[in-house]
Amino acid sequence: MNLESSTVTVSKSPEEVFNFLTNVENFEQLMPESIQKFEMLNDTRFLFQLKGMPEIVLEKKETEEFSKVILGAASDKLPFTLTANIEAQDEQNSNVQLVFDGEFNAMMAMMIKKPLQNFINTLSDNITKL
């Protein structure tokens, strides 16, 4: 299952956006209001839980300096990645798009598609407020 946010403009340079997103502790600021739990596990991992959803542990998997940050599920039970693609608009502005890619059976995908799309859209909207 592949879900994408719309591309949003952030009033920060690609370097500033990249540095913000590579510090996983900052994801707490991007979470929706329905967050019930957020806990740092170490410098590259955090746990979060949204209302009505199970706890999920995300970890920083890969980065491409100033252009991409990839987070992934720490558990093989729900294998997925969340990628932030960062593109320079000019020296002071960046375009950011979030891409979710996961492998789920058809029933699971049907149940989680809308909540996941809403979650990704909220993260994307909150990035614009940096």
From TrEMBL:
Designated name of the protein: Carbon monoxide dehydrogenase subunit G
Species this protein is from: Aquimarina brevivitae
